[in-house]
Automatic annotation (TrEMBL):
This is Thioredoxin reductase. Keywords: Flavoprotein, Oxidoreductase. It holds the Pfam family Pyr_redox_2. It comes from Nonomuraea maritima. It comes from the Bacteria. One of its GO terms (molecular function) is thioredoxin-disulfide reductase (NADPH) activity. Residues 7-275 form the FAD/NAD(P)-binding domain. It catalyses: [thioredoxin]-dithiol + NADP(+) = [thioredoxin]-disulfide + NADPH + H(+).
């Protein structure tokens, strides 16, 4: 096994990981990104609400970000971390391909996974006509027939947001909605169609959403579905390192520092609600904190 030396390993090559690498590389740190190539938004048609890159394809955005990081000396290693352990004052990471990297600091930018409601057909259209974030995709759904599929607080917030984009809105819960009658009455009074009967499947024609079929035989034509997803950590690595996990988030301070010495978390793995732009901003703060910690370590003095 070849053990390579670097100052910082960033695990994850999405928006957060590449932004952290860019900031650290421009601070003249030796930084290595280990990227398993599975970004959260890989299936989305476009990235929105990112000034200067509005509407760019996710793959294109990441290629631009990789080029930026490499320009300042960052390495991009296409591989996956399979093990991690402390090696003296350093961290030693083993990769699936057989190599290993030893680093002074780790930045976890491993993201989260969106878990869809258990409705047949949602996954096949995920990232296209099935989405989850009204801030990311509400504009594209404006004035079109839209359904929210799901229950509970997430579905409630989605419906409230989407009322600003369309007057043809349905909440499809597939059973009890998961919130009180006062909220249901509010939605019905606001013109939102609330249907709690079982859902059979989401129907597509030639790869595009045509509507939602109910178990009782009814069919509701729709152009877009917003799924009330749940979230979980995309990687087992944060927990394996001993990081505290609260729900779907790695617990950190405001800079991204975890309770594990030498380990930071950036982007959606630390705050699952972050968009691409938010993840990049969070990663900038984290990268600066990592560099500051290394500066203090370089002096050998206690700050």
């Amino acid at each position: 096994m070849t053990v390579n030396e670097t100052e910082v390993v960033v695990v994850g090559g999405g928006a957060a990981g590449l932004q952290a690498a860019l900031v650290l590389a421009r601070a003249r740190r030796d930084v290595t990104v280990v990227d398993g190539g599975e970004p959260r938004n890989a299936r989305a048609r476009a990235v929105h609400n990112l000034a200067g890159h509005e509407g760019v394809a996710p793959a294109c955005l990441l290629e631009l970000a990789r080029d930026d990081a490499r320009r300042y000396g960052a390495r991009i290693v296409r591989d996956a971390v399979t093990e991690a352990r402390q090696d003296g004052s350093r961290w030693l990471l083993g990769l699936r391909g057989g190599d290993a990297w030893r680093a002074r600091a780790l930045v976890l930018a491993t993201g989260v996974i969106e878990e869809l409601p258990p409705v047949e057909g949602l996954d096949a259209l995920w990232g296209g006509d099935v989405v989850s974030c009204p801030y990311c995709h509400g504009w594209e759904a404006r004035d079109r027939p839209v359904a929210v599929v799901g229950t509970g607080e997430r579905a409630w917030r989605q419906v409230l947001l989407l009322r600003r984009f369309t007057g043809d809105l349905a909440l499809l819960t597939g059973g009890p909605a998961g919130f009180d009658g006062e909220r249901l009455a509010f939605l019905r009074d606001a013109g939102v169609s609330v249907r709690e009967e079982p859902i059979a499947r989401v129907v597509a024609e030639e790869g595009r959403l045509s509507g939602v079929a109910f178990a009782g035989g009814d069919f509701l034509p729709r152009d877009v579905v917003f799924a009330a997803t749940s979230r979980r950590q995309a990687s087992a690595l944060p927990a394996a390192l001993g990081c505290e996990i609260d729900g779907a988030a790695v617990v950190t301070d405001r800079t991204g520092r975890t309770a594990v010495p030498g380990v930071w978390a950036a982007g959606s793995c630390a705050d699952p609600a972050l968009t691409v732009a938010g993840s990049a901003g969070h990663a900038t703060t984290t990268a600066i904190a990592v560099n500051d910690a290394l500066l203090d370590e370089d002096t050998g003095l206690t700050p």
